[in-house]
Amino acid sequence: MNPLMTRGSDLQRAGTALSVNVNKVALLRNTRTLGVPSVVRAATLCLEAGADGITVHPRPDERHIRPHDVFDLAGLLKAWPGAEFNIEGNPFHNLLDLAREVVARGLPLHQCTLVPDSVEQSTSDHGWRFPEDAERLVPLIAEVRALGARVSLFMDPVPEAMAAARAVGADRVELYTESYARAFADGRLDTVLPAFAETARAAWREGLGVNAGHDLSLDNLTAFLKGVPGVQEVSIGHALVGDALEFGLADTVRHYLQCVREGNA
Question: Which of 12, 71, 162, 221 is the most exposed, fewest CB within 10 Å of its CB?
Fold first, then answer.
């Protein structure tokens, strides 16, 4: 069974899945007009190399992933029944429109990761806040689940917020790991890793699954998974695409899978 297929109640069934975010491939492609490099081809190479899924984060300004990419990739995933398609983004922007259309076309949509980014942000930089965001999230989460997709909420490592995430109907949380990556680079792991581990434990107690993402890399991924056991999925794009310039895309995916194996050992 693909580990991405587990829901929050299936906490320890399988190891950590690797979902590759192909946003940066689209960003490079968009600097020209001939469709090179191909986002679908990149995703295919990742899946052939063993990736468990593909992630995209389309934004309203279409600076990287564009609507046709979402549908093209969903079509690709239809031919890979063992892998999953994860669309992430702000549900108050364009995310839900794209999710509805994917399902309306009969294409696979396995997970929606809801992220509270603003239109102006270059990248995500914080998780949802509770109780502030609770009321407006409830109907959106219900709609995504009615579409047949799992809901993951992008969250800071705050153990006390896990009960609230479960109360609004989420299946999983995605731990926002930029603070971990910065601490790792500075040799300060002991200042941040306990909060991530405790947040994961709090999520399990609430029946939530645990994902993680943002600035995870070949350097820091194994240590994160060793320190935060039970992570069901990591979504990695920026560092992975950067590493592909050195190793090639397929071998880079294999390197990340090796980090996952070592982290889960």
Answer: 12
Q: How far apart are CA 217 and CA 209, in angstroms?
A: 22
Write out pLDDT tens, residues 84-105. 999 999 999 999 999 999 999 9
Helix boundaries (H) for 22-133: 23-29, 39-48, 67-78, 95-104
Please tell me the pTM assigned to this model.
Answer: 0.92
Total domain count for the chain? Answer: 1
- Under a CB-based contact definition with an 8 Å cutoff, are residues 247 and 67 in contact? no
C-alpha angle 165/192/209, rounded to 5°? 30
CATH code: domain of residue 254? 3.20.20.70
Tell me, yes or no, whether 169 lies in a domain: yes
- For residue 37, say if its preceding peptide bond is cis, omega within 30 degrees of 0: yes
The residue behind tokens 């194994």 is: 222
Q: What is the DSSP string of 129-163?
A: -TTTTHHHHHHHHHHHHHTT-EEEEEE-S-GGGHH
| CB neighbourhood size of 27 (10 A) | 16
